[in-house]
Description:
Order of helices and strands of chain A: EEEHEEHHHHHHHHH
Strand order of the largest sheet of chain A: 1-2-3-5-4
Mean pLDDT of chain A: 89
CATH architecture of the largest domain in chain A: Orthogonal Bundle
Radius of gyration of chain A: 22 Å
Number of domains of chain A: 2
Number of helices of chain A: 10
Number of strands of chain A: 5
Largest sheet of chain A: 5 strands, mixed, barrel
Structural class of chain A: alpha+beta
CATH topology of the largest domain in chain A: Hypothetical protein af1432
Oligomer: homohexamer
Shape of chain A: elongated
CATH class of the largest domain in chain A: Mainly Alpha
Strand content of chain A: 15-25%
Amino acid sequence: MKKGIGQHAIGDSFEGFLLIREVSKGLTTNGKPFLTILFGDATGEMEAKLWDATKEDEETFVPEQIVGLTGEVNQFRGKPQLKVLTIRPAQPMDGVQLTQFIKKAPVEKEVLNEKLTEAIFEMENANLQRIVRAFVKKYGDALLSYPAAAKNHHEYASGLAHHIVSMLSIAKELSTLYPSINKDLLYAGIILHDLGKLKELSGIVTTSYTLEGKLLGHIPMMVEEIGKLAEELKIEGEEVVILQHLVLSHHGKAEWGSPKPPLIKEAELLHLIDLIDAKMNMLDRALNKIKPGEFTERLFAMDNRSFYKPLFEKN
Amino acid sequence: MKKGIGQHAIGDSFEGFLLIREVSKGLTTNGKPFLTILFGDATGEMEAKLWDATKEDEETFVPEQIVGLTGEVNQFRGKPQLKVLTIRPAQPMDGVQLTQFIKKAPVEKEVLNEKLTEAIFEMENANLQRIVRAFVKKYGDALLSYPAAAKNHHEYASGLAHHIVSMLSIAKELSTLYPSINKDLLYAGIILHDLGKLKELSGIVTTSYTLEGKLLGHIPMMVEEIGKLAEELKIEGEEVVILQHLVLSHHGKAEWGSPKPPLIKEAELLHLIDLIDAKMNMLDRALNKIKPGEFTERLFAMDNRSFYKPLFEKN
Amino acid sequence: MKKGIGQHAIGDSFEGFLLIREVSKGLTTNGKPFLTILFGDATGEMEAKLWDATKEDEETFVPEQIVGLTGEVNQFRGKPQLKVLTIRPAQPMDGVQLTQFIKKAPVEKEVLNEKLTEAIFEMENANLQRIVRAFVKKYGDALLSYPAAAKNHHEYASGLAHHIVSMLSIAKELSTLYPSINKDLLYAGIILHDLGKLKELSGIVTTSYTLEGKLLGHIPMMVEEIGKLAEELKIEGEEVVILQHLVLSHHGKAEWGSPKPPLIKEAELLHLIDLIDAKMNMLDRALNKIKPGEFTERLFAMDNRSFYKPLFEKN
Amino acid sequence: MKKGIGQHAIGDSFEGFLLIREVSKGLTTNGKPFLTILFGDATGEMEAKLWDATKEDEETFVPEQIVGLTGEVNQFRGKPQLKVLTIRPAQPMDGVQLTQFIKKAPVEKEVLNEKLTEAIFEMENANLQRIVRAFVKKYGDALLSYPAAAKNHHEYASGLAHHIVSMLSIAKELSTLYPSINKDLLYAGIILHDLGKLKELSGIVTTSYTLEGKLLGHIPMMVEEIGKLAEELKIEGEEVVILQHLVLSHHGKAEWGSPKPPLIKEAELLHLIDLIDAKMNMLDRALNKIKPGEFTERLFAMDNRSFYKPLFEKN
Amino acid sequence: MKKGIGQHAIGDSFEGFLLIREVSKGLTTNGKPFLTILFGDATGEMEAKLWDATKEDEETFVPEQIVGLTGEVNQFRGKPQLKVLTIRPAQPMDGVQLTQFIKKAPVEKEVLNEKLTEAIFEMENANLQRIVRAFVKKYGDALLSYPAAAKNHHEYASGLAHHIVSMLSIAKELSTLYPSINKDLLYAGIILHDLGKLKELSGIVTTSYTLEGKLLGHIPMMVEEIGKLAEELKIEGEEVVILQHLVLSHHGKAEWGSPKPPLIKEAELLHLIDLIDAKMNMLDRALNKIKPGEFTERLFAMDNRSFYKPLFEKN
Amino acid sequence: MKKGIGQHAIGDSFEGFLLIREVSKGLTTNGKPFLTILFGDATGEMEAKLWDATKEDEETFVPEQIVGLTGEVNQFRGKPQLKVLTIRPAQPMDGVQLTQFIKKAPVEKEVLNEKLTEAIFEMENANLQRIVRAFVKKYGDALLSYPAAAKNHHEYASGLAHHIVSMLSIAKELSTLYPSINKDLLYAGIILHDLGKLKELSGIVTTSYTLEGKLLGHIPMMVEEIGKLAEELKIEGEEVVILQHLVLSHHGKAEWGSPKPPLIKEAELLHLIDLIDAKMNMLDRALNKIKPGEFTERLFAMDNRSFYKPLFEKN
């Protein structure tokens, strides 16, 4: 199988199709216009400059356009940069489709769906189970297709479902180790905690933030949703407000976006399990790019730390 | 007219009716039980000890009970303390009623209602006006009767409406000074910003927090309410999410309980007007207790500062 | 009337006179010298590059020089940039004067002076009134002509007086709403709070900081001035130290430059009114540059927030 | 079986043997000496006052003394307090022993030892395994008997081993979920991370801090130990410094006592797993004391939060 | 010579004269009034309770009153407390004077004066020297008699001069080690940095804060003084503003009371030398009270740390 | 004697030998490769661009290579930049050696060694003296040759010894002023506090950090070393743990890298003396580059402050 852009090293030449992810326009110090384009496919992404860009270029090479491209991978400020030799918009007869160019979760959508269904099936508290089922039904395919974030972690198709399913695995084990855990509540919190992102983010391909997302954030949006849905389902009882609390507090601290810190044991656990899965995802991606004995690039979402990969790492 | 408990100085004797606000039980260093009771009426409150309290005393003297009492005002650790000489539960024939013992706003409920109605009448944006009207109708008398908080500021009957009406006055003046202000939006934000407290606080007499208030807080609760109501009224358009943003951000910073800081001009103003009115209310109350040339007690909600009352203060 | 530089959009051509505000020298990556010049007039400012700059250019095109210029407005890194076609120093016969090129307050100097005089006239406390009068006399035209700051807010000619007069309007309204306010003290604090800037900033055209401004800051400088003046006027009594306190504490917190936080009610109000007027000024300027539905650039002095302009904004 | 002191409610009378945990001396407001004694057994602890204490009492009733006692459980400032009726030092013929009065882990020492041995057996990296084995051998019974801390979490006999074994369970599950984890390194880090406490704390019964503990803290002490031991075992290679790093960084942040934050994936995981197990232990203990529908006392080590126990909690 | 109150241990009896430093009134749990009096002499201070205090007692036993007293030293909450047996106001014929009861610097006033004069004599910069001389002349005996602070460090008669002279010694040595130091500037800064306290504190015996001290603080007060004095002396030149800067910045950070941080090398040094001398003074006092092998009480002004006195400390 | 690179101003031409300190590769906006090289000698350093760099250039011009170079000093972004005219690798017959190109302490190694020996000779406590002697012997020439840091302060050959010796001078004077200081302990702490850097830094010429340095930091590494050495020397007693504490706490606060803050008087002094010497070193270097009346560049390690050099500075 052909190598994707994320598998090309400095010095390689490239020939194939790529998706335009971002474009910005600039002027050289000599006043000539150029385009800076971020190309990507399912394996990764790379930046390129398009020198002496014409008005027509500007109109042709826009986000979500697929192009056929030949070029070379050079180095610019320590990072690989694509030098474009030829570039043209893809044609219908090229037979390429948007979905081919999107990174995907390492687990298939069907498997994720199955594991999710299984967890819901295990739940015994009828109120919690009904709310969860209603949400899963309401968001349907979006829940299984969306990324978990625009960047940082699980930022690929089905990333949200992958994140949920991983967290459910940890929750299951912790429920065995600490029998006092209310597993139903923890499961419900895990499944719903990030669903507000389905409204906060605009879509799977170009994951920017909606106005509602920018002005309210996914946490209060989801708290509201749970309230509305419980009302529609005519569910009453403490489960509703406690589930809202789990979602509200899952960032752990006011300064991290949770107006109330966790005040229920399962809320505290939800916060910690979320941290573990998000951090493991970020670390694995960063460490995969380097060799044993090297440090990763600085990871902004992990306090700007640079992690070391030990030499004795098993192969 | 008879002087209330808040108008008694050290050395005075007291005879009259008082409401029990709080009770707690203790043991003397010699192992004998006693009750610490916080008595109050519309003019203020004072603590007393009930020595050698019997089981019966414990059952009789509970919060919300009105009592007939004679006593003397002593000093304990620098503060006035009531020494109880006789005490008995009020009887129906005493002709006293709970509402007589509650502190009230300095402006009558009817006047507050009138001013509120007037402000709503001035609004031109139909969406904002309809939402505001619906809330005023929904909460009705509670909106006009509740305190604005359990402590700190406007913690008296009709305190919430008093706070809203004062803020509307400031908003009106600022709208004249800065014509770019969207007055309708600012008015709507002011009227709704604290309505979540009607659900967060348990009532007018004993203002403690509900479970929902403790686990979610009044801000996310009100954001949810606005969303639900707009849906019921079938109102669409940016007004809804922007009004939710005004409520969401009115504490100004994540660490003060607003997951998003103000990102709309009127949201920033709402935050500042709220600060002015709340602080003026706290300061006036604290400064009224002291004479020119003295410092107030430390005010916890104002960074624990102690304020000075100048000697040249006008009488 | 001819359009100023602040009213030119990308793609426009420009012909007219401009004032040089700042100049810095650079080298292209090919080692050739160029000048980066910030041009401005009363309507705004725009940057330009002067390529292949000679020694003579460096000596001619310096700050406070007026030039005749033709050019085009291009885009560079997302911002408009002036492309210079011809440039020459202005001649006496061009009939242009420095004052034409300076941004001015939206209210005339005479009106500002009148409102200021009126407020002083309203004051009843003789000590406070005499101190304020003496300062207004001492700084005379400078008080009416200076900007309020080198950047951030009211950074135009008469900006300081405009800021003072706006704050006085708010203070007047608050004094009506809260009768316990000592209006004389609040007025005096408002008029004097920023006068230290007359010494801190070097002038109206090029508003940089003096050594004294850099080493002491305008707050301690003004506290000192009040002390000296009161001594000269042989004024004694608490008014002097309390007025010094109002100035000292008006930034609100030690980490914001006030060694003592507000400890007088009117000091707290002065701080809050200052915030409102400064923020409204910053926000209006930033929001005027964008269309409804857009976000402003990040505003450094407002915690780096980017504000949204609602679509339903009145026209 | 007889009920322990932790199982007595207000109003109960008590008869039996108790261990003195802490003693302090006071004066009543009338100037008479008394002793405040903290009594405990394996089920909990309770405070008592010994009025009119003689010199002899002071010398008799000291920490680690076992006494025979009859009394009643009263309430003082909202907490249960033991009222002593009779008290006498235990005699050899009473047949009571110190170890009976110490709280113990819910899992037997033998089981903990077995699970620990099993985990070490699973390790494949010879260097890591040899270091871990050497430590387990060196600390022997202390490792299996000590508490994990003087207070906060796992503060009972075998608490350290219980904490280690729980963390190993979580680590095992995470290693399955995230195959990139170096399980040997994570296991080694978990087993060694808190062993420094064996030197920091003075013993099992009275767990106070040694001078070395106070001046250096358990983290640098353990880093030193690993270095010394590796030298003795003549083990070289990155494993040593990386294991030291895991111990050094396991508190997560400089301000929490780790001079370096985690810079290895397994170090980050060690920190998070430690948090989960410590917090679950604290929460379970606090929640066990209350009924559904109540809030726990404030938990200092959990940011002073008070947690809620839902009404729908399974029984 | 007779032992002072600071040299009495628990169990000792006391007979002699003491100065009343502070008095506060309280009520016992049985409602009886008592006085809590802080007695002191040149060697230390001790608290006592005066039970069943009459109105007359209240009027007699007030701050700055000297009394003849017999009593015993008991222990209360771990601290020594004086049990009063007899107490009477001192009479003229007792021949005791206020100054006998005040703690003094370990160096004589004359010696301090001499060293100060010497340092001024060494100065070569005429402007700096004239300003310093003028201040020393202006404050005269107060400078040599006042404490450096109301509490924390050098809180005894002549404490300010003692602090200045110690700092000058360190400055002299550093000037030799680092020849680039402007010794004149550093000396001037050291002599003037805390003189504002002469206005901030009310006197030598009862060192409370003046209104000016509370509202402005000693730093802005001294900056103002330097400005006024330089004007009177008709001294111009950078020395004045730089000296003001040294005083202004000597607390090091805005949040510690310096609106500008040190921006001159000698200002940075002044800050560090001040820290060393203040901390050594605090530590010596705290360590003198304990034996080798013990920890001091918590020192609030040193981040609440408790310091250890090593066993191998030389005697 | 010929002028070094640090003594060349803009406009000068340069001819001589230079050491390559750092090299990085870049691409011009036109896609052509170039090298950015940092050249240095004992007097300073300057950056240069090597345009149109070939593969061979990349292999030749690497760190630690000495080159013969002719060029001119231009200005680039306000800083001097070397324009390379000719460049060639140095040959054996050029007779130049690495050590000639390294900045050195202003005091000779022999003198530093002598002063160090003298201080150790003064010590009276046998345990402390033996440990210190053993370390001086163990590190021998490295101690006398290494810089104190990779950047910030004393970043030149023999910088560490220079830093130690300067601190010993201050310690000596303070011991005279405050006789309670344990001079032996303070001396020992000063000599050992930064020795961990001999392991943390990789060498004298290219001072980068070792893996151990990055994962553990010099403080825990040195605590470990002291422990090991004391064991080898069979020294027991509090001196060992207290010396470890001095090293551990010398950064003063947990967030600055000291897991325990100073809890011994001499530890607090060690921290303050370290601050003085490091800051004086940084300030002198920065102030030497500017003229009176100017501000230094911003100093990152001093809270990003820019310091002023007074006009009346002595010449």
